[in-house]
């Protein structure tokens, strides 16, 4: 029987303190290590997938080739501690505290950049990592640095205001700073177009001159003993956990031997893909290989034909390498580089770009990859190596085709990627459409290349690749081949669009849906490519409908540097200093939130004998439980008890909801409604309809929305040991609801339940009633086990159980005159309440009262009905029904404008 290898010690630094971990577990992520082992709770859990930035910290290391110290932001939730050997980690606690603030912490706090404060430490560390590399960054660099951080409270304006105070050459206007063409700086808060005459000298929200200066000589240095260790000869490290063995080879030879021995083991660099599979989908790998110290994987070698880039180069480093090449080389050679840079600007956030590698991005073959379509279209080649052989593989249709075994073999390693230069008559473009510009998966993306015969517009070669519309990157090879020999004109454009729609088929079950939209985008991208090539070749062509009106489609939306202006009444000089009214006072917890000292529920230290509660959610909608077999569950290590409905000593408030249906439309069909109905009647709509010139009818369907508060539902229930008294620390907007619910479930008077709320990491209506459910379950567990219970939901679990904003179906009938004037309306709103009523009636009332928005409906019949379905109960959300009903009303206005052939603003007036 094979003996497990002897484990090495893991050595790294955290905030200047040396950590020697003798039993490093490869399954432990840096986030949990910081919070649970080191009790550095300033780093927060927000999503577990590297998408929100709450867990951002800075990692410092020595580059294996240049030997320069480099600092970069990472998401701690995806970073295994075993990848940190001989590195240094810095968290917000390591750069300052409330007694000795770091300038980044001070400026974000005093610029009012914190509200709930849960995202603030991540914001601080993203900005701090940028300043370690660029002490005087541009505003564009600041926006890039913060692109991987989500804030649900502030709207980002005050965060950027605070961060922009570090910028000297802050905006794109600073090159014109003299003479009549002088432009205003983005830091100038006075805007002549918006200033009111009587408020020319209005006060500022903060005074930049009072801020601490940034002194880079006061920052933590990279530990000298790590420099010595990294400068010397390296050896392979092995870390052995309970279930997983982690190998970190130091040479290419060791890597290839491991690859031969463990062909199924994943190669882990930034862990941005494997980490997601592990954290969110439960994928398990008993052996993991991390070639992070193999120097051969960091090659950067330009030659006459192109540039070879090592597979371990991160996407952030790739962007820098390509940008430098673009500045040095003739423009016609770097068209592929420019297309890749365009995609890299918006691919994920800065943290993920600093972790993910070029090789991992390619080898994962993800359908949403923004780089693979461009690399494939450009003719990139993969340099592969295995024990005893090397080969070069073309990145083409066969590589991505799952039915063809022409990819990377299990015993091979992707050594580097060769990206060829482009020729003068060769053009490469990249396209991407997502729900937002930055830090969002592409709905559809594409890479396209065409090469013409010298001095002609005849297509000599072409490649088209799409992402986001299948299980991997797709090639429109047949379309490309059919167009070779055609002239670059409108006839070719029409034929290309027809062929592409025929070749690229999108099934109704495609991930993400939006089938028709994606089909439209495939030909829309080619149309843009057609125009771009014409423009780059300085050619004009007459298109049906005129060429000029289409040229705007190829212009990128300029990312404007944010400019802010706040106008408020200056405080009277006679107002006493102790009177805070009207003063721009710093958030009382702002400093502590920026330094990580603010304590949220899960930041509280463990209580003696504390247990964690996990919820078993139903995998079937509206099913009847016939029996429950607890045998296997009780055999899982660590399980103390299983809590069921029979354990509830008091009232189980979620019983007795009656027959439920799966969809809102089913509920309407079978009249599965909660009563009473709500309605408003004004005037006589039935009679008014008879006088209308036009009667319009229609439906509007609006989907739901997740609150996505940064802090998931969190609470701790502590039994006091006498008289059935319990202390509850809970993140909620309505402390009394949780108190009364726990008392009812336990069957005790409410004065026996002491509820406490210190702060909440975001809510937006989602923590009014929902925390009471979790508090009640935890309280039953605490009563039965007589031990404290901690409940902290994972992001997916939270979203699955809590639901959010109500989906709404609106049906309208409206009568209007030829001039657009409304005479009558009959509107019905059906909301998907879910399996319980929750806050649905209150949502209906607000929706009804506000449905007329700013318009006059002289005769109105309006009703709102809450549908009973077998989905999780929807609840309060900012706006309370008005966003949905307001959209229905605006749809009515648009329908009238179209019918009466009037401008929308005329109908609105």
Question: How would you summarize the topology of this molecule?
Answer:
Elements: E1 10-14, E2 17-21, H1 30-37, E3 56-62, E4 69-75, E5 88-90, H2 92-95, H3 103-110, H4 120-133, H5 139-145, H6 157-164, H7 224-231, E6 237-240, E7 245-248, H8 252-261, H9 274-281, E8 287-289, E9 300-302, E10 306-310, H10 315-328, H11 335-346, H12 350-355, H13 358-363, H14 372-377, E11 381-386, E12 389-394, H15 397-400, E13 413-420, E14 426-434, E15 442-452, E16 459-467, E17 474-475, H16 477-483, H17 490-503, H18 515-536, H19 590-595, E18 611-612, H20 631-635, H21 664-669, E19 673-682, H22 685-689, E20 694-702, E21 714-719, E22 726-730, H23 735-746, E23 753-756, H24 770-785, E24 789-792, H25 795-802, E25 808-816, E26 822-834, H26 840-850, E27 860-868, H27 882-900, H28 904-908
Parallel strand pairs: 1-5, 7-8, 18-24, 22-23, 26-27
Antiparallel strand pairs: 1-2, 3-4, 3-5, 6-7, 9-10, 10-13, 11-12, 11-13, 14-15, 15-16, 16-17, 19-27, 20-25, 21-22, 21-24, 25-26
């Amino acid at each position: 029987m094979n003996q497990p290898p002897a484990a090495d010690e893991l050595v790294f630094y955290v905030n200047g303190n040396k950590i020697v971990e003798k039993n490093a577990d490869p399954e432990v992520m840096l986030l949990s290590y910081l919070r649970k082992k080191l009790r550095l709770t300033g780093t927060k859990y927000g999503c577990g997938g590297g998408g929100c930035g709450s867990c951002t910290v800075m990692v410092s290391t020595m580059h294996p080739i240049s030997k320069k110290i480099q600092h970069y932001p990472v998401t701690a939730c995806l970073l295994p501690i075993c990848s940190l050997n001989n590195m240094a980690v810095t968290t917000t606690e390591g750069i300052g505290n409330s007694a000795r603030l770091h300038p980044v912490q001070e400026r974000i706090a005093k610029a009012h950049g914190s509200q709930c404060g849960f995202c603030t430490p991540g914001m601080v560390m993203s900005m701090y990592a940028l300043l370690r590399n660029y002490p005087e960054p541009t505003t564009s660099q600041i926006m890039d640095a913060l692109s991987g951080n989500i804030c649900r409270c502030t709207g980002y304006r005050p965060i950027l205001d605070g961060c922009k105070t570090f910028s000297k050459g802050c905006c794109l206007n600073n090159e014109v700073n003299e003479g009549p063409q002088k432009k205003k700086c983005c830091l100038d808060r006075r805007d002549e177009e918006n200033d009111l005459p009587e408020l020319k000298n209005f006060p500022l929200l903060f005074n930049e001159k009072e801020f601490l200066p940034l002194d880079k000589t006061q920052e933590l240095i990279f530990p000298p003993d790590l420099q010595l260790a990294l400068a010397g000869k390296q050896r392979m490290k092995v870390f052995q956990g309970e279930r997983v063995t982690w190998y970190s080879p130091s040479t290419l030879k060791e890597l290839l031997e491991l690859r031969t021995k463990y062909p199924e083991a994943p190669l882990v660099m930034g862990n941005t893909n494997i980490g997601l599979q592990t954290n969110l989908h439960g994928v398990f790998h008993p052996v993991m290989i991390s070639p992070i110290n193999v120097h051969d994987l960091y090659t950067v070698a330009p030659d006459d034909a192109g540039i070879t880039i090592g597979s371990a180069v991160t996407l952030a480093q790739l962007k820098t390498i390509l940008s430098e090449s673009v500045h040095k080389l003739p423009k016609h050679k770097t068209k592929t580089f420019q297309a890749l840079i365009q995609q890299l600007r918006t691919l994920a956030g800065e943290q993920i770009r600093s972790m993910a590698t070029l090789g991992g991005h390619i080898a994962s073959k993800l359908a949403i990859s923004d780089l693979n379509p461009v690399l494939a279209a450009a003719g990139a080649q993969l340099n592969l190596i295995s024990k005893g052989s090397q080969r070069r593989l073309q990145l083409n249709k066969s590589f991505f085709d799952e039915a063809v075994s022409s990819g990377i073999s299990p015993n091979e390693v992707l050594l580097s990627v060769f990206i060829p230069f482009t020729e003068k008559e060769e053009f490469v473009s990249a396209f991407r459409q997502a729900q937002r510009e930055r830090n969002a998966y592409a709905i559809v993306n594409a890479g396209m290349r065409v090469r013409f015969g010298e001095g002609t517009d005849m297509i000599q070669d072409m490649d088209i690749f799409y992402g986001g519309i299948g299980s991997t990157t797709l090639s429109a090879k047949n379309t490309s081949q059919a167009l070779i020999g055609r002239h670059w004109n409108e006839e070719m454009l029409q034929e290309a669009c027809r062929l592409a729609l025929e070749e690229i088929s999108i099934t109704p079950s495609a991930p993400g849906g939006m089938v028709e939209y994606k089909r439209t985008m495939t030909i829309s991208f080619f149309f843009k490519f057609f125009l771009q090539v014409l423009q780059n070749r300085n050619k004009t062509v007459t298109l049906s409908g005129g060429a000029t009106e289409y040229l705007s489609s190829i212009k990128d939306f300029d990312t404007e540097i944010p400019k802010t202006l706040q106008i408020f009444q200056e405080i009277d000089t006679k107002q006493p200093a102790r009177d805070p009214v009207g003063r721009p006072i710093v958030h009382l917890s702002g400093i502590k939130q920026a330094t990580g000292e603010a304590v949220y529920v899960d930041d509280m230290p463990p209580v003696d004998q504390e247990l964690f509660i996990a919820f078993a959610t139903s995998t079937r909608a509206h099913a009847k439980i016939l029996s429950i077999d607890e045998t296997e569950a009780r055999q899982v290590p660590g399980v103390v008890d299983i809590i069921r409905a029979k354990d509830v000593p008091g009232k189980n408030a979620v019983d007795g909801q009656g027959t439920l249906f799966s969809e809102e439309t089913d509920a309407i069909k079978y009249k599965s409604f909660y009563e009473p109905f709500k309605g408003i009647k004004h005037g006589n709509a039935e009679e008014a309809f008879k006088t209308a010139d036009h009667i319009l009818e229609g439906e509007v369907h609006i989907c739901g929305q997740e609150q996505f508060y940064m802090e998931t539902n969190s609470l701790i229930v502590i039994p006091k040991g006498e008289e059935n008294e319990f202390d509850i620390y809970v993140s909620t907007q309505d402390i009394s609801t949780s108190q009364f619910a726990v008392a009812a479930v336990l069957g005790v008077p409410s004065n026996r339940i002491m509820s406490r709320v210190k702060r909440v990491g975001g809510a937006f209506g989602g923590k009014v009633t929902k925390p009471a459910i979790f508090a009640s379950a935890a309280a039953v567990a605490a009563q039965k086990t007589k031990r404290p219970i901690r409940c902290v939901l994972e992001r997916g679990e939270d979203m699955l159980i809590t639901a959010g904003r109500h989906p709404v179906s609106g049906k309208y009938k409206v009568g209007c005159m030829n001039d657009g004037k409304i005479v009558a309306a009959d509107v019905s709103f059906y909301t998907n309440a879910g399996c319980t009523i929750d806050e649905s009636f209150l949502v209906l009332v607000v929706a009804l009262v506000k449905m007329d928005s700013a318009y006059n409906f002289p005769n109105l019949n309006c009703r709102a009905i809450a549908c009973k379905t077998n989905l999780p109960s929807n609840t309060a959300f900012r706006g309370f029904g008005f966003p949905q009903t307001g959209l229905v009303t605006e749809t009515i206005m648009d329908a009238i404008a179209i019918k009466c052939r009037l401008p929308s603003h005329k109908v609105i007036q």
